[in-house]
């Protein structure tokens, strides 16, 4: 019986390795900024932006990118996005207000908040920020506020309920495709409404990562625009939201092997590889595996621009591709990538606090962090962490461990996976989780037990780091303190 722990080696960047290979630097940083600590690299962020901008240059349709800042709380990234020639997608009052305070031009902002109250809408209307409407109540409130403010609002309409393979793609967001035409014709029938609200385009954001679905949704939106043109409406853009795949892992073989071994563990054909043999979505029933892996697809071969390319190449029934129709109909394609712009941008480092053995013989390594400081919205973050040892060559003996956190919850396991290490970490050794910039480090972060939120630091040229650490704290940054290396 094969019992070794399957590896899931992450893709890393030289800047990450230069930190992970330097225990002294890590020790200094954690001493100065506490554990856990988030480190960002702006060059990686800029290079991701550059990849998208270069990609769109090959097409003749217009395009516009908005960085979805919900994926990371740091305002530096919003500023750098703007300075690098793209816009910012905001999803709350604070996100929008902060971007305006950072002097990001309103025409480079979009408001896509799921819930929009009067205060938020008034801010957007006063600053002439494009608002993506989710429902009729919002549209009515915008109209009322426009009259009060004596302003014209610019809006896009979020749509959902596309057909794919004879099934409806259900969503709690947006106006359903079956009723959106009627809504537009009725709501904008009024001259005064038309004067107050300029309807300029459509928006959708689909869950899942199927380029065929996105392509189908784009074709259906283009069909809708064609119909609306006959009624004298002229929407100019389709914003397809975010959800552009990235690749976190080095090896397809490891990714497939991990899933096979997880299934074997559930079938009791090997030792567990997750805490309490958690199936991460797979279920064992009558000695058979059911269900699906409920994690992000951490390995994939069509990330970023190649994922968008595969969407643009989806044909409609007349065999015309999305990109051809965008060009012909002169429709601007907009995107709101969050995670994919943050690929290779962040790491999260934490100090080892203790080691122990539980009643079942599991080795638990307690970290000075909690589970909310590195959490995936999917069933687990499936990347092997990297351990930096203060004494790398002493007492080498392979161990298998689980990493645990500081909350008073039995479930505060930083990763559900068991991790194989070349030796047991000592107290003060450092564990680094890589590629955590998109969602992992911030999205679920809480302050239970009055633990402080982790600090966020930025390195402009981290490989030439060490000595010169300049402090920069931004009071406007919603508790996220930013410090530049
Ligand atoms: C409307 C909208 N736009 C953009 C995004 C960003 O998606 P991602 O970070 O996966 O690119 C999201 C994510 O939930 C979203 O809901």
Automatic annotation (TrEMBL):
Its cofactor is pyridoxal 5'-phosphate. Pfam families: Orn_Arg_deC_N (PF02784). Residues 55-262 form the Orn/DAP/Arg decarboxylase 2 N-terminal domain. Keywords: Pyridoxal phosphate. SUPFAM superfamilies: Alanine racemase C-terminal domain-like, PLP-binding barrel. InterPro entries: Ala_racemase/Decarboxylase_C, De-COase2_N, De-COase2_pyr-phos_BS, PLP-binding_barrel. This is Y4yA family PLP-dependent enzyme. It comes from Mesonia profundi.
